[in-house]
């Protein structure tokens, strides 16, 4: 079989070569690319003869997939697969696996970090002291005792909940599935409107689907407390970021910590959240730690090995 690494995974070439060695020894062809394809035509040229594609989080459209006559399996070094032409894969009987669990702790830690930044004005006081200023007007709040609403109680939502619990927070949860393990951790499930209206901090951990797109739109954001903080480290389009920026600028929300946007950074200079009051923005780094990037690389190669043995692990399609 021909296995193609479509794009870099953020690890040294030596790591890739080591993980690919068993496949090559077994007689399979392995072709790695360590730069991003410039466009769809270059993607097609890279993968048109592939049986297996290993990739990360850059779009793989239906137009590209339809040109892959031999393609049987895609192993994605990411949690979400909304950047892949799933309908085209389904029509061609192509399986897709993700790298489930690789960044649970990384994203959870950033979510708590963004909440702490918003509460204690860490970024703001850093900027002030460099200009000769003081803490005046920037005295923050403690995390302990706050009510935290977890929107989406899957693996990352659960990991985030455990960290907030360790800080002495009360936990509310909203999810399409009520999980007994979440309740055992102290999460009290409520409706979305109740969660938004009662939480001091709302942290979003849902995948992007037709149902979750714009889940927190203008009307839902309006339900939040005036002194509440919204954290989003899941997918940008789950939140209406224009409405969020308006709420922040109008003082209807105390702060926001946002790692994901409507598109991948770099963002346009006029992107509303970049100019909103009390918004801490990071360039989609939630998943990106040395440890998590290394872990996801091992997972995607293991996915391929298991698929060749007849087991589709971490299956998403």
State the helicity in percent bands.
25-40%
Secondary-structure class: alpha/beta
Largest sheet: 7 strands, parallel
In angstroms, what is the radius of gyration?
Answer: 21 Å
Average residue-wise pLDDT: 97
Shape by Cα distribution: elongated
Give a description of the structure:
By secondary structure, this protein is α/β, with parallel strands linked by helices. 36% of the residues lie in helices and 15% in strands. The protein has helices at residues 13-25, 40-47, 62-65, 86-92, 104-120, 122-129, 155-166, 180-184, 192-198, 218-221, 241-249, 290-308, and strands spanning 2-5, 29-32, 52-55, 73-76, 95-97, 147-151, 170-174, 187-189, 201-204, 229-232, 255-258, 279-281. The chain has a seven-stranded parallel beta sheet with strand order 8-7-6-9-10-11-12, with helices on both faces. A five-stranded parallel beta sheet has the order 2-1-3-4-5, with helices on one face. Helix 7 links the parallel strand 6 (147-151) and strand 7 (170-174). Helix 1 (13-25) packs parallel to helix 12 (290-308) and helix 5 (104-120) packs across helix 7 (155-166). The longest helix has 19 residues, at 290-308. The two termini are 21 Å apart. The mean pLDDT is 97.
């Amino acid at each position: 079989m021909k296995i193609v690494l479509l794009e870099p995974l953020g690890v040294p070439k030596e790591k890739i070569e080591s993980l690919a060695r068993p496949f090559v020894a077994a007689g399979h062809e392995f072709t790695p690319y360590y730069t991003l394809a410039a466009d769809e035509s270059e993607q097609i040229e890279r993968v048109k003869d592939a049986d297996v594609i290993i990739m990360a989080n850059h779009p793989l459209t239906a137009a590209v997939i339809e040109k892959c006559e031999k393609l049987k399996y895609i192993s994605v070094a990411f949690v979400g697969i909304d950047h892949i032409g799933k309908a085209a894969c389904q029509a061609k009987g192509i399986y897709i696996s993700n790298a489930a669990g690789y960044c649970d702790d990384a994203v959870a830690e950033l979510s708590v970090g963004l909440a702490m930044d918003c509460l204690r004005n860490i970024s703001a006081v850093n900027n002030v002291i460099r200009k000769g200023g003081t803490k005046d007007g920037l005295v923050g709040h403690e995390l302990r005792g706050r009510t935290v609403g977890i929107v989406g109680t899957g693996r990352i939502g659960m990991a985030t909940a455990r960290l907030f619990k360790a800080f002495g927070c009360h936990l509310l949860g909203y999810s399409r599935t009520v999980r007994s393990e979440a309740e055992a951790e102290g999460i009290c499930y409520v409706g979305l409107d109740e969660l938004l209206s009662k939480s001091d901090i709302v942290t979003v951990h849902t995948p992007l689907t037709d149902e979750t797109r714009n889940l927190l739109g203008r009307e839902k954001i309006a339900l939040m407390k005036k002194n509440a903080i919204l954290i989003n480290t899941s997918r940008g389009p789950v939140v209406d970021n224009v409405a969020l920026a308006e709420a922040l600028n109008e003082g209807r929300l105390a702060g926001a910590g946002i790692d994901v946007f409507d598109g991948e950074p770099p963002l346009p200079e006029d992107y509303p959240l970049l100019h909103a009051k009390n918004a801490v923005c990071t360039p989609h780094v939630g998943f990106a730690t040395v440890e998590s990037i290394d872990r996801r690389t091992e997972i995607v190669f293991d996915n391929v090995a298991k698929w060749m043995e007849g087991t589709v692990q971490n299956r998403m399609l």
